[in-house]
Amino acid sequence: MRARRYILTSAALALAIALTAPIDVGSPARAQPAALTAEQSKALETYDRALNEFKTILNQRRRQIDAHEPLPDRPGQALYLARVDVMSSYKDLTDALPSRIGRPNKYEVPPTYFDADIEPLIDEYRALFDVMEAPPANAQASPTPFKDVVDLGTAIARAKGLDAKGADAAGRISLGLFFAETNGKQNVGNGRAKAYIGSFQTGPSEDRNGRKQWQSIKASIAAFDPQMIARDDKEEARAAGLDHRLNHWTAVRDGLMNAHADLFAQIPGIARTLPDPIDQMKFFELIQIIPTATRAALKSGNLLQSRVSDPTVMKYLRNNSIFAYGRADRARTSASFREILDAMWLFNQKFARAQAEFERVRTR
User: Which residues neighbour 101 within 8 Å (Cβ) at sequence distance 6 or greater?
Assistant: First the structure.
């Protein structure tokens, strides 16, 4: 029997080293003080333990996937919680021991929350989620997924009465939501919650409501864009008998109509309060996460200074990577919307990618 040769790519080699290498706490570039306080020692031990547990679950899930073994019911949940523990314990470590704050990282996470040396582990984390959340075989993809999102968001905004500038902003914001929910991948599943699937990660009732709301503006769109309605009719026929969340076009359409369309008319006012396009995308993502509190803040007339303090709302924020990492952040009992927007740094890279793709769509 001929022996197999395995050739590691540079990325695979980096991951193999990261998964097996001991934790370096004393390199010259990051040497620790000669004596740590009890608090610092505990923080370092907690981070080391969290990092080893993260490596363990990454190894376990990769082995199960490669061996085609059955996965747990929500296979991504343990991975997600392990990643949260790593970032949380690292933030506690850098709070206790500022000398552990390292260099910037490619994910653009503030260095107080993330050690750039573990980038290969996060690469593997994302790769595993790509496998666990791959679209089912019967999903109906689009050859132009980004353009579809922009076109639908723009048309819905026009039907809501916006001028060209406002409708353009709606198209950009819609693409931002697509990246926030799925990293720009269509028809995906959800490794942490089976109820939410598709390009906008909607539940069954949200999808049904969105389809109903679409019917209420379809004639208005037909008056200025009959080609869009012709495309829509084709997608409806194509998706007949299929969960509409597994057709990219209908999933995006219904997701936008369910949660965001009624606020598109207010985009000019929102843009005056939030001139940064990234902040605008964050605001509409908050409509996904904490819709009631976000709408109330908008109605208050003082959006940025409006505060949330309801424990359930704060829990929803933490569950979506906002105030989620480290004891100090997790202990917060309230926050203004300015503070919430600033704390959404894990979304920054996604929204920057969405903005770049939007410019490409518009250029084409």
Answer: 94, 111, 112
Percent helix, strand, coil in the chain, to 5, is: 65, 0, 30
**Which is nearest to 82 in space by CA: 43, 47, 111?**
47
In tens, the pLDDT along 320-349 reads 999 999 999 999 999 999 999 999 999 999
Beta bridge mates, 247 = 140
* Integer Rg of the chain from CA: 23
Eight-class DSSP state of 202: B
Which two structure tokens, joined as six digits, stand for 17? 């080293």
Residue 226 tokens, joined: 């009959």
Count CB atoms within 10 A of the CB of residue 226. Answer: 10
Q: What's the rounded Cα separation, in Å, for the pair 172 and 151? A: 10
**DSSP state, residue 276:** S
pTM strictly above 0.70? yes
